[in-house]
């Protein structure tokens, strides 16, 4: 494959991972102690700080430049935004009418974590750091309009999202002011619209899934409208990653046109690790100026893919893009692609059923493959 692709100097970089990394045993042990009240929050934080420093070093050693904190402070990928906002309460045994208060962001959510991550790298590396954030539509897609918010506080979805998106906007702005230039929104909900089982369930429930997809895309665009030009925002679309297990199947064909042409993000991190993700054909709709990160390395198993096999799949993706866009050159199509594992290694704290050595080998493979494909352009 040609290595004439242009040098990437900003996100998304050619070789990356989705965000979460395996929690080392001391973090899991101290987290359990904290749950049982056997250690202080400060003691837990100290262990997490040490683990973050360790995974930063891991990423440097293997050649990953889009460094994250591995989500070492989280139990689940979606932790952070919602429970950190005023007006949000998570007490499932309380009746709905007890939930009161408008949503407001009165403090930083991921900002302190970014400050610590920033303290571990050189000033030149800061622009490549990546912050992962749960999608703003996550609670709504899980619980619907009836139970996501108190109807004595918000009369409808638009009112709810107006305040929620403002809180997200404030968080993104502060992260930007701190030097963050790469935000990844983790959103499994888009894959619901790819799965026949999910579509059938929505239709049975009387839900207009096309209108719902349009609604969510519109809310993303409301959030991201007017963002700084040098802030890269990507969306990772996941089919489930609970200790190596998935929850839905289906290719991107059903949503590809809207996904690539209407959703106002810079890049799409797509799962392509096995047959349940469907084929690469939806990439024919990828417009110029946007990037797809091909998640072709599995984080669910220790079985190691080969550089040659990954290169062949990237070549196939280039062909699909060019066949769908005759004006696009191979070099141009190649410039629109990057590579990564299909998901994080630990979307939940317990992690996927692989070892830390497996994780290192997978990350090394991603970097080696990127070098083999893009050469100095990675």
From TrEMBL:
Entry's Gene Ontology molecular function annotations: 5-methyltetrahydropteroyltriglutamate-homocysteine S-methyltransferase activity; zinc ion binding
Ranges for domain Cobalamin-independent methionine synthase MetE C-terminal/archaeal: 18-349
Domain of life: Eukaryota
Pfam annotation, one family: Meth_synt_2
InterPro entries in UniProt: Met_Synth_C/arc (IPR002629), UROD/MetE-like_sf (IPR038071)
GO BP, sorted A to Z: methionine biosynthetic process
Protein name, UniProt field: Cobalamin-independent methionine synthase MetE C-terminal/archaeal domain-containing protein
């Amino acid at each position: 494959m040609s290595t004439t692709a242009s040098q990437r100097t900003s996100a998304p970089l050619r070789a990356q991972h989705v965000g979460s990394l395996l929690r080392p045993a001391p973090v899991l042990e101290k987290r359990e102690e904290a749950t049982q009240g056997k250690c202080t929050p400060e003691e837990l934080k100290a262990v997490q700080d040490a683990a973050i420093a360790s995974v930063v070093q891991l990423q440097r050693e293997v050649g990953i430049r889009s460094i994250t904190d591995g989500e070492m402070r989280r139990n689940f990928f979606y932790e952070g935004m919602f429970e950190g906002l005023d007006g949000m309460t998570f007490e499932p045994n309380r009746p709905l009418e007890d939930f009161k208060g408008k949503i407001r962001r009165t403090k930083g959510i991921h900002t302190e974590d970014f400050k610590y991550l920033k303290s571990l790298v050189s000033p030149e590396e800061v622009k490549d750091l990546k912050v992962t954030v749960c999608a703003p539509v996550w609670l709504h897609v899980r619980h619907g309009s009836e139970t996501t918010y108190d109807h004595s506080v918000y009369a409808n979805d638009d009112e709810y999202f107006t305040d929620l998106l403002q809180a997200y906007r404030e968080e993104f702005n502060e992260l930007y002011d701190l030097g963050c230039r790469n935000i990844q929104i983790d959103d499994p909900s888009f894959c619901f619209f790819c799965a026949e089982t999910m579509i059938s369930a929505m239709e049975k429930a009387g839900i207009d899934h096309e209108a719902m997809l349009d609604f969510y895309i519109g809310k993303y665009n409301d959030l991201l409208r007017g963002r700084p030009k040098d802030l890269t925002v990507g969306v990772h679309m996941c089919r489930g990653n609970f200790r190596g297990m998935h929850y839905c199947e289906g290719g991107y064909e059903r949503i590809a046109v809207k996904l690539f042409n209407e959703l106002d993000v810079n890049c799409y991190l797509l799962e392509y690790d096995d047959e349940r993700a469907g084929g690469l054909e939806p990439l024919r709709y990828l417009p110029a100026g946007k990037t797809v990160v091909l998640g072709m390395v599995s984080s669910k198993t220790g079985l190691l893919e080969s550089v040659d096999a990954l290169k062949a799949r990237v070549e196939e993706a280039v062909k699909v893009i060019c066949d769908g866009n005759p004006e696009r050159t191979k070099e141009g199509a190649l410039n629109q692609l990057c590579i990564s594992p299909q998901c994080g290694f630990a979307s939940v704290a317990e992690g996927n059923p692989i070892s830390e050595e497996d994780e290192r080998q997978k990350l090394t493979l991603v970097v080696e493959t990127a070098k083999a494909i893009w050469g100095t352009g990675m």
